[in-house]
Amino acid sequence: MAVIAHIDLDAFFAAVEQEDNPQLKGSPVIVGGDRESRRGVVCAASYEARAYGVRSAMPVGQALRLCPTGIFLRPRFSRYVSVSRTVMEIFRGAATAVEPLSLDEAFLDLSSVAADPESARKLVAEIKGRIKEDTGLTASAGVATSKAVAKVASDLEKPNGLVVCPAGREREFLAPLSVEKLWGAGKKTCGRLAREGIRTVGELAALPRWQIREWLGNAGGERLWHLAQGLDQSQVNGSRKRKSLGVERTLVRDTGDLALIQAMLARMAVQLEATLKNRKLSCEQVALKVRFQDFTTTNRSRKLSEATDDAQNIYEVALQLLHKHCLRESQLLAKVRLIGISVADFIPAKGRQLVLFT
After folding, report:
1. Are 60 and 68 in contact (CB under 8 A)?
2. What is the CATH architecture of 13-76?
3. Residue limits of CATH 3.30.70.270 in the chain
């Protein structure tokens, strides 16, 4: 039986700022953009700011209208990368495999140390405690027999929650939830289902598969039907050998905000670091991919003088490529619709000190 945890740091960028500066604790902290010019987008918001309706990717002007007393801070990506690496090391010391989704969240395969999700509860609580002890941050976690259900569970009791879905009760666990909670169910999909009167996962799960495929297309409908049943066979961090490893994201809305692009690159670098270390590899090449609003695409790479599996090194090279090929006078050449980093030319990683987690 697979036992998988999804652990997500709470309000990560803003929480780091509050931990580093205790005077900010209890205040509505908004990371990203500029208060004076009202330009840019929100990279992260503390829970105090979220109480006003402020959310990530929101224009700063809108955030300021919602939360006039908000404390706006410029992001410190190198600091966030450093804290993320500490957390990922804790994960790697506890799990068979770790699959980061970004700087602040990851899947952990606990199958070799726990017989079922419930028996993993104590271990995940210990991991959360170790994160708090080493970084001062809280994290929310979900544990289940699949990645998709664990991801849903981790979002149910934020902040600092721990939700376990017992084995065999996945469909029952998901049934009362809104379809918006399903991993991968976007606004367009949920809107289509709402027009058909489908608002909960249970209502979706009760439909025949052909009906969902008719509404959402064969591939999308089939996948969503399986998720509604609590079925997900995907594994944590596959072990296939590849000539390159990459992460890319298509933005919901095209953006010209450089701080947001830098934040995305930092998250991708940490995800690549974890993948490299899980596979015991270092890379000798880093590549950047940027697709602009008009669909023109820039691909640039750099050969490294020394192989690395370090997120900070990967991030810095990607940032240099961005500044050299995609900026003019500190501004992006055009709005960006897709951003990505890949690494290649692998060699076996040098031995590193293992983390003993008890």
Report:
1. no
2. 3-Layer(aba) Sandwich (3.40)
3. 4-11+78-165
Residue type, 329: E
Span 155-199, pLDDT tens digits = 999 999 999 999 999 999 999 999 999 987 888 888 889 999 999
Q: Which residues of 127-157 are buried (b: 16+ CB within 10 A; e: fewer)?
A: bbebbeeebebbbbbbbbbbbbbbbbbbbee
Does the pLDDT of residue 287 top 70, yes or no? yes
Q: Is 157 a catalytic residue?
A: no
Q: Catalytic residue among 48, 89, 105, 273, which?
A: 105
The residue-averaged pLDDT of 65-75 equals 92
Would you state the pLDDT for residue 356? 44
Q: How far apart are CA 238 and CA 93, in angstroms?
A: 18
Over the stretch 309-331, which tens digit does the pLDDT of each residue have? 999 999 999 999 999 999 988 88
* Assigned CATH topology for domain 244-348: Dna Ligase; domain 1 (3.30.1490)
| Contact of 97 with 282, CB cutoff 8 Å | no
What dotted CATH number matches 4-11+78-165? 3.30.70.270
Please report the pLDDT score of residue 238 as a whole number: 42
CB 300 within 8 Å of CB 319: no
- Helix, strand and coil content of the chain, in percent to the nearest 5, comes to 40, 25, 35
